[in-house]
Amino acid sequence: MSISYTEPLSRAVERATNICFRPFDLGKWFVLGFACWLARLTEGGSGGLNVPVPPIGERSAEGAVVPGPVAAIGDPEMFGVALVGLVIGCAVLFFLVLLPLLLWIGSRGQFMFLDNVVHDRALIQEPWKEFKVEGNSLFLWRLGFILVALAVVALALTPAGLFIWRYGSDQPPVMTMLLLLAPLLLVAFGLAYIDFFLRAFVVPIMYRERIKATAAWRRFGPTLKRHLGSFLLFGLWVVILAMAVVFGVLVLVVVTCCIAGIVLIIPYLGTVALLPVYVALRALSVEFLAQFSDEFRIFPELAPAMAGGAPPPAAPPPGPPPALGPDTG
Fold first, then answer.
1. Tens digits of residue pLDDT in 15-41
2. Helix (H), strand (E) at residue 66
3. Strand, coil or helix: what is 57?
4. Is the full-model pTM beyond 0.70?
5. Angle 220-225-228 from CA coordinates, rounded to 5°
6. Residue 188, SS3 per DSSP
7. What does the alpha-carbon distance between residue 199 and residue 118 come to, in Å, rounded to a whole number?
8. CA distances to 37, 110, 251, 275, 299 from 264, in Å
9. Are 87 and 72 in contact (CB under 8 A)?
10. In DSSP terms, which residues pair with 65 in a beta bridge?
């Protein structure tokens, strides 16, 4: 089997061009961009929150020292306890409420966005309801995966933690720390690939077969095992393409004197502005997966002219009418 990496990219770009520009519809961009934004809720955003740290004491215009938060409380130790409690409370709120909510919405959004890309349309309510079972199954799988990943990362950090606890504040050799952190790097590499395979290939299989996440992994597993090298190289190929996109965005920001950057850091508007890129990336993994079996095909075939080939031959002109027989009347 000959596996191509450029042909799926060419087809994905062609589909993104058709969806976003043939014809160009700004309303479609905003609706499809909203589905894409939902799908990417937990895939990284446009920067974190910048929380300013208040000063301990400030000087007024007259030069007098104005008490800061620590002095206002009166006891620096109590302020530290309150700050630690606030951080723990925010962490608990994030992991128990906000993160599961974002995961649930993002999992449903994965199917909304994929359905719109497959059918070249911009709908929100219909795919949200239609793929409820698959979206909820994906959410539960991702939530369990996060819990397992946290446990595995903690286990990988155990050798380094034991070493630091044993030797205290002594500066360990660089090579020793690298060896101790090597399991963490391997674990991070494996977890990143599992998450990538889930979004890139398992979700399309769930979408096509209308099955749950675990069943889709079982369908994908034999193909992944037989062609593991090809799928690993595809992950690196996507990283290279993402780096090229980032470079292009940086050039655009510089050329526009940071005006484009202001738009791109706004989460929803940034997604709409980069919609052709996200559509192409969504189509890319589906096109790549379709090379391994017809059972994995989701997209309809591109017409020859759309796929970059020669246009279909014109229909032959109609021939002359048949001659009438002799009049026997």
1. 999 999 999 999 999 999 999 999 998
2. strand 65-67
3. strand
4. yes
5. 105
6. helix
7. 15
8. 13, 21, 13, 11, 30
9. no
10. 59
